[in-house]
Predict the 3D structure of the following.
Amino acid sequence: MRIEEELKLDFKDVLIRPKRSTLTSRAEVDISRQFVFRTSRRTYKGIPIIAANMDTVGTLDMARTLAGHGLATALHKHYDEHLLIDFFRALPATDTVFYSMGIARVDYEKFHRVNAALTTDTADATDTANTGQGIASLCVDVANGYTKSFVDFIHKLREEYPDKTLMAGNVVTGEMTEELILAGVDIVKVGIGPGSVCTTRRMTGVGYPQLSAIIECADAAHGLGGLICADGGCTSPGDLAKAFGGGADFIMLGGMLAGHDECGGEVVETNGMRKMAFYGMSSRAAMDKYAGGVAEYRASEGKQVLIDHRGAVEATLQDILGGVRSACTYVGARRLKELSKRTTFIRVARQLNDWFGER
Ligand code: 5GP
C-alpha cells in the first residue's frame, strides 16, 4: 500500500483570479476553437462542448439542436442502426456528431455496418447530405480505460480507420493519457467518478479529483500534440470555465443538459412540478432497459434522479456560453484558447464552500 500526499483538486476547491483586461464586453470573446487532430488529421471547428452519450442527453434531437449552435454531441449507443444511418445521411457535416460505442464485438460490428452503409451512398442521391464519407468522429466509451482489452481495441480500431477522429476513455492520469494518444486516440476522455449520476466513488472507492485529473491529463496530452475532453462533474457554467482554465480542450456535459425537451424522456407531474428522469448509463434503470437487468457479478455504478423539466435547451445553452464568455472577460482572454494561459487558480478553504452552501 502507498499513500500519495500531493494535494488534488476538484472544481469546488478553487476560484479563478481576475486579471487586468482591455476587453470591454463579453460579446468580444470568441469561444469557438479550431483543432487539427493529431492522428485523424481532420479539422474541427466549433464550440468545444459535447453532450454526453447518455440516452437522456445524447439524443438525435439534441444533436440537431446543438449543431445549430456550433456545439457537439456524442450520440448514445443504443439507437437502432437504420435510424443512425438515416440520421447521418441527412447531416451536412458530421465532424461534431460522435458515434459512440463500447468495446464489445457487437458494438464494433454495428459501427462497421453503419459506416459501410454511409460510405457506399452515392454522391448523386438528392436527399443525401453526407456524401459517401461515412462517420467522421467516434467516441469509444468504457467506465475503466485502464484495461488491456480497451487499449487493444483502440489499436485495432485505429488500424482499421486511420482517418476517423477518435475520442476515447475514461482515464484520469497522465501516463494512461499518453498511452492512449500513442495508440492513436485524438481526444482522451478524462474523468472517473465525478459524474452527477455516477456512484463509482461510493461503490468502489475509486476516482480522482476532476480538476487535477484535467490539469495532469491535459499536460500529458498536449506534450504529445493530443487533446483531452473533461467528462463529468460540471454543475455550473463556472465549472466549465475552471475546466477550460485547467487545460481541457473539450468538455462533456450530462446533467447540465438533461431535463430538456431535446432529451426525449417522459415528463411526469409530481406535486404540480414537471419532472424528467435522468439516470447513469450503468444505473439499474439503464441496465434494466438495455441489458435485461444488472448482471449477477456486478453492481450498478449509477443512479436515477428526477430533475425539473426545463423546456428547450436553448436558454440553458445561453447561460452556459454566457458564463464561459464572462469568465474570459474576467481574465482578459479574447479567445477561449487563451483562457488556460490566463488562468490562475486560487485555492479556496473547503469550510468557506460549506459555509456558503456552495455545491
Ligand atoms: P455529468 O455531466 O452529469 O456530471 O457527467 C456526465 C458523465 O458521467 C458521462 O459523460 C459519463 O462519463 C458519466 N456517467 C454517465 N452515466 C454513468 C454511470 O452510470 N456511472 C458512472 N460511473 N458514470 C456515468
In short: The chain has a mean pLDDT of 93. Residues 121 and 286 are 34 Å apart (CA to CA).
